[in-house]
């Protein structure tokens, strides 16, 4: 989503602001802008589309000054035009915003009635107009902010510059993340620590409702009630190198290939290799009393949760509900005492998931989170934090975060089962052994990259593609379809193999490739029968299976992709690789923008 950066510096900031935006490009955006303070004026430069346009604009019309704010916008209200691009400004105030001001309509009407003129269609502009009104009435910037913030509903991270006070910026957060960074005689605001990585490692995470005045000397932070508060300064550890592509063509490709390493890294925190037992971080609630698990997530994380449902039920015999976060909160779910609510999110900031987490917390559920950013809002609000150690994920289409989530969830389900007395020592050891096989199997799966690249042209011309899987590989079919949709813009659906005959089989003809995920194992025969039903109707099949499966059922397929033979427990991790690579190579064949697919944003911080 939108990236925000603000600098109160000692040297000209325009180039550093644009550089900062470049580091946040991966989040997805459709326009960008900066505003600096210079010669008693607010100097604003904005451009539609990619940052190259803004760079050109700044080169042609420089924005001098040592203090400024900048933004990449992922439009929610109003088309992605220059006019709607942030910063929004009047003569007195310039502001960038991440989030949605949900009550912008009544506020806008109120301001229009006062004769104020709007120049954009955004929700954001009401905040600028409200602040300007108070400034024009003689309030100080801090007083204006203090008056306006309580009137805003929805979610926001704001960075604000004031013409009359050229040596400071004000930031505020409610529902969208914002951090303060401390440099040598400089202070920064940023959407996250990664955005500030080349500037500083010293970071304070603002809490919900906080607002902050930054100057060259440092930051003064206030809480939601306006009391001055201290927020710890921590070393972020975020490295600028983590957001380099290295020798890879795309971040997504780099992240797919990092999976053996990061899954091994993640597993190190969740299994004791020598004892062959699962090991979780300290849990300070009685896990044995948990009688129901509610899993809530969005997108790829939701599919990881679907796989986990199979594991929790199979190992721990505990009932599991699962829902997408955007639906969960609005359907009045039954949350009985003794329930564990489990949230899965790469960023830990996904607005829908975060809102669902807070809803469950209020309903008295124990909260566990699987997140990749251990300093995120979800991490901070959980009773049990289960970090994945995937490292920063830059590609908008999630890959390595997914397999690391699966690794953590498998360990959690097994731990749960052990504590509930549902797994013997031998069974636990077997699970650990299989999990520890995963990194090598992921490597073996990656060895088929060239084969997949070579058959991608068979899929690239398709308008629709179906993916089929059974059992824990059914969520994988949906994940495969999602990956293809996201980056190649081909319409794709994932189905439970057995569901085909209840409707979607009507779609089958020789223009619709059907990708079948069928590791040999207990469900293989059934899936292959469903595959034959497709073939009998002229469907063209891409079979993803191991050598044994391909020998048995590969004949007559349009293509086969061979995977190593793996235990069914780790099949969802290993089979993630070919569906990711297939989507990746199809997108490359079509020439789409793999790392910044159209309309998509990373870390979706609006509801
Ligand atoms: N609602 C604002 C900001 C959008 C946003 O936060 N995107 O990530 C707008 O549409 O400009």
From TrEMBL:
Give the protein's recorded name: Glutamine--fructose-6-phosphate aminotransferase [isomerizing]
- Entry keyword annotation includes Cell inner membrane: no
Which ranges carry the SIS domain? 283-422, 455-597
Q: Which EC class, in a word? A: transferase
What residues make up the catalytic site? 2, 602
User: Which terms are listed as keywords in the entry?
Assistant: Aminotransferase, Cytoplasm, Glutamine amidotransferase, Repeat, Transferase
Q: Which domain of life is it from?
A: Bacteria
Protein species of origin: Croceicoccus mobilis
Function, in words = Catalyzes the first step in hexosamine metabolism, converting fructose-6P into glucosamine-6P using glutamine as a nitrogen source.
State any GO BP term from the record.
Answer: fructose 6-phosphate metabolic process
On whether Cytoplasm is a keyword of this UniProt record, the answer is yes
Q: Which NCBIfam families match?
A: glmS, PRK00331.1
Reactions listed under catalytic activity: D-fructose 6-phosphate + L-glutamine = D-glucosamine 6-phosphate + L-glutamate
HAMAP family, alphabetized = GlmS
């Amino acid at each position: 989503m939108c990236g925000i950066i603000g600098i109160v510096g000692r040297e000209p900031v325009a180039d550093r602001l644009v550089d900062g935006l470049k580091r946040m490009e991966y989040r997805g955006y459709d326009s960008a802008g900066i505003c600096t303070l210079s010669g008693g004026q607010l100097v604003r430069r904005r451009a539609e589309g990619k940052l190259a346009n803004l760079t050109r604009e700044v080169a042609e019309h420089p924005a001098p000054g040592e203090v400024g704010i900048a933004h990449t916008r992922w439009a929610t209200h109003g088309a992605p035009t220059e006019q709607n691009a942030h910063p929004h400004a009047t003569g007195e105030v310039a502001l960038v915003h991440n989030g949605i001001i949900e009550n912008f309509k009544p506020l806008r009407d109120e301001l229009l009635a006062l004769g104020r003129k709007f120049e954009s269609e955004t929700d954001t502009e009401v905040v600028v107009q409200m602040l300007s009104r108070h400034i024009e009435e003689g309030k100080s910037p801090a007083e204006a902010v203090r008056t306006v913030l309580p009137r805003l509903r929805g979610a926001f991270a704001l960075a604000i510059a004031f013409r009359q006070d050229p040596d400071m910026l004000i930031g505020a957060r409610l529902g969208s993340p914002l951090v303060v960074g401390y440099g040598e005689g400089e202070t920064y605001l940023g959407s996250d620590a990664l955005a500030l990585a080349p500037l500083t490692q010293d970071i304070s995470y603002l809490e919900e409702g906080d607002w902050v005045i930054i100057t060259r000397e440092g930051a003064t932070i206030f809480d939601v009630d306006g009391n001055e508060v201290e927020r710890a300064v921590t070393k972020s550890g975020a490295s600028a190198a983590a957001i380099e592509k290295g020798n890879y063509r795309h971040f997504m490709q780099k992240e797919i290939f990092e999976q053996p390493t990061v899954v091994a890294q993640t597993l190190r925190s969740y299994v004791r290799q020598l004892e062959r037992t699962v090991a979780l971080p300290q849990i300070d609630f009685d896990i044995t009393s948990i009688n129901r698990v509610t899993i809530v997530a969005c997108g790829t994380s939701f599919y990881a949760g679907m796989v986990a449902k199979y594991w929790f039920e199979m190992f721990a015999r505990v009932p599991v509900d699962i829902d997408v976060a955007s639906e969960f909160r609005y359907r009045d779910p039954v949350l009985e005492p003794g329930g564990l609510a489990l949230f899965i999110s790469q960023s830990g900031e996904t607005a829908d998931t975060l809102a669902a987490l807070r809803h469950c917390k209020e309903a008295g559920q124990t909260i566990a989170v699987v997140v990749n950013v251990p300093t995120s809002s979800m991490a901070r609000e959980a009773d049990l934090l289960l970090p994945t150690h995937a490292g920063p994920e830059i590609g908008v289409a999630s890959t390595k975060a997914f397999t690391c989530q699966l690794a953590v969830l498998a360990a959690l389900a097994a731990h749960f089962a052990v504590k509930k007395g549902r797994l013997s020592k031998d069974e636990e050891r077997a699970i650990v052994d299989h999990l520890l096989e995963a990194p090598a199997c992921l490597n073996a799966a990656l060895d088929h990259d060239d084969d997949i690249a070579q058959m991608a042209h068979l899929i690239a011309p398709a308008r629709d593609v179906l993916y089929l899987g059974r059992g824990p590989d059914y969520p994988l079919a949906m994940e495969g379809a999602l990956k293809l949709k996201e980056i190649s813009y081909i319409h794709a659906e994932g189905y439970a193999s057995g569901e085909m005959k209840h409707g979607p089989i009507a779609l089958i003809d020789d223009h619709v490739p059907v990708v079948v995920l069928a590791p040999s194992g207990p469900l293989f025969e059934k899936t292959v029968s469903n595959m034959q039903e497709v073939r009998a109707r002229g469907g063209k099949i891409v079979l993803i299976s191991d050598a044994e499966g391909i020998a048995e059922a590969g004949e007559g397929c349009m293509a086969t992709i061979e995977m190593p033979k793996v235990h069914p427990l780790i099949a969802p991790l290993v089979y993630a690789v070919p569906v990711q690579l297939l989507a990746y190579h199809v997108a490359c064949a079509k020439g789409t923008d793999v790392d910044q697919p159209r309309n998509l944003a990373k870390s979706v911080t609006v509801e």
